[in-house]
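ASSEMBLY PREDICTION REQUEST
Request ID: AP-0331
Submitted by: J.K., bench scientist
Number of chains: two
Total residues: 813
Priority: normal
Notes: Please return the full assembly, not individual chains.
Input sequences:
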Amino acid sequence: MKIRSGIKTKVTGLLKKLALPLAISLAANPLAQADEVNSTGLAVTEDTVKVGILHSVTGTMAISETGSVQAEKLAIEQINAMGGVLGRKIEYVQEDGASDWPTFAEKSKKLLVNDKVAAVFGCWTSASRKAVLPVFEQYNGMLYYPTFYEGLEQSPNVIYTGQEATQQILAGIDWVVKNKGAKKFFLLGSDYIWPRTSNKIARKHIQKLGLKVVGEEYYPLGHTQFNSVINKIKLKKPDVIYAIVVGGSNVAFYKQLKAAGIDMTKEKPLVLTISVTEDEILGIGGENIEGAYAAMKYFQSIENQNNESFVSAFKKRWGDDIVIGDVTQAAYLGPWLWKAAVEKAGSFDIDKVRAASPGIELTTAPEGYVRIHENHHLWSKTRIGHAQADGQYDIVYETKELMEPNPFPKGYQ
Amino acid sequence: MMHSLKQIFPRHDLIAFAILAAILAIVFPLTMDIFRLNLVGKYLTYAFVALGLVLCWGYGGILSLGQGIFFGLGGYCMAMFLKLEASSPENTAIQSTPGIPDFMDWNQLTELPWFWEPFHSLPFTLFAVIAVPTVFAFFIGVAMFKRRVGGVYFAIITQAIAAILTILIIGQQGFTGGVNGITDLRTFLGWDIRTDSAKYLLYFVNLVLLFICLVIAQCVRKNKLGRILVAMRVREERVRFSGYDVSNFKIFVFCLGALFSALGGAMFTLQVGFMSPTFVGIVPSIEMVILCAVGGRLSILGAIYGALLVNFAKTSFSETFPELWLFAMGALFISVVLFFPNGLASLYQEYVLPWIKARFKPRVKTKPEAKVESKAKPQPELSEATDDSANLPAGARYEN
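STATUS: Completed
Returned structure:
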């Protein structure tokens, strides 16, 4: 008992010594409250507004997400050069999701709770979005998510600037059926939610058209041995290989396809993909994928005034040998859409920005014109690109009308 | 037979425990906002794993590179319970089959798989959190140790199991949530775990559990069992020839490590609100070994400090240099290994402990047997450690 009381005094003495260095002051910086444009305590001052950028800049996803980071920074710099948003310069806080979904959740919480950012531009994979979604809903943040994805989601706290699955898939399949007379399809994908959901939609659509799916196969992420499926493809003789292979697996898949004697330029069978942008072709090699078709909303080769100035600004900022893929362009839209919504709302408040978002148009989008739908996705055109040996796509088709986003497609679930 | 409390908790160990308790239970909650405190809570869940590794690896010499398996199993059991609660038919009315977790609906499952059913019950879940990983560890242990598989082979096999489990979870996404994991967990028996007050409470629950585990670990190392473990690590054959069944001890300590990890996993799920296969695989398992090594693999308290230091560093480096933080982490690991081969615990042993002992000298003097002790240089308290430091490099002294 004596000992215990002795310890007590020693411990309190120790505590006093420890407390000082350990007391990390995390006191919130007293921000000038600009009430009329910010009634909820966001990090907005008289001349600045803080936003977050949350992508993986380390780890396996860094190669894909770097383009998005560059696009978002470019957009922010351009907006600042034009005078900012509601007269305030945008400052960004960049955090690294490190290709690790829990880290995304942690960092998003940090951005919302500690930094009190007015919007976050970020995430790439569906897994990272699923991880941060509860955080954004709990702390009422606003996320601008750039990747084309599987749909089945509609959060009041997310603006989806990429296409959801039906926008990408239906137009592509209709096009090969109408223009290439395709009758038999072989579906192929990496094994996770996006390819599986997308192929489910594709299968339903193919069946609706009265055509046939002759095979459907999935391989784990990172898989590199596609010989057995290529043999199956040769056996089943489909008209179209519908490929949703992602990431590094693409390199192995297209090389092995070519090595197995399937010449994509002869289009027998034809390869249609929704997962290979110009960024992936850098890894695959243009000569290995020459002749394949891709269905998405943006290609670097789109010819219009907006895109020309976007591509040249992007190259000027980040280097001449850079390529721009679909997601990079979608990421570029994020800050602009947010700016438009804030200015329409006349406030940075999340609720007001959300309410102002549906109907926001962007006539300066590199892809041409986009508009935010009630369901927080974008109306956009879908285009078919024809892969060239130089790693670029020739655009062979674009939908006449904007495709309506339909994240919960009836009859496709 | 029974060791007295004093033998299990010699005075300077008590002080060390008290310092840790004061930092975690008083200093941190008073100086940090709830966001940071919740992060600390998350770091401390890794400390459970590191603590288990101190016993397995530091004491027993069993290097497991698959502790993520048990962390994950514990976490998934808890996540299944919480997910079922979050997937009530009202919450999931938008799905084609309401009442089942959302990812099952995306994967075209139309009814709950049979092995999910029992997770509607909290008692079963708590039982499963403890039993599933422990029983799994028991089977691995029996299969390996009874055949005298050890050392590098054991490490490789645990790694393989971790890889297999990750592939299984990712591959069976309809049943497990796949790569996305089990996300969007909201309530625990109707109690919203996402609120600030819940986070405070969970932090302290986590702390209490951690200290229970610490006390268990302290009992193990101060008991005969602890000495046998050390003996096994140093001269396994000799222990066997002395008539001990080495494999049983190994199985026990491996199961205990698994149990600690599982508790950590379950607390992780509760505090962070989701579970994903990124905690099960090889990389997180190795990270957990690093936590243990940074803290000092022979020190149960060091494991806690190691987990805190590494994760604090990770968070602050990555917030400050989002693109270069991995290099900073690398530098941290290299410098710890270079300058403190026995981890943070060696700092304690060399600087803090002598200071504490000096402070207590006047008291100690009155006791006759303590005089002998005070003559020796910074020497560990029990004969256990002296035996083994004869056989080991200097590092083996740093046991606390």
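REVIEWER COMMENTS: Chain A is about 40% helix and 15% strand.
SIGN-OFF: pending second reviewer
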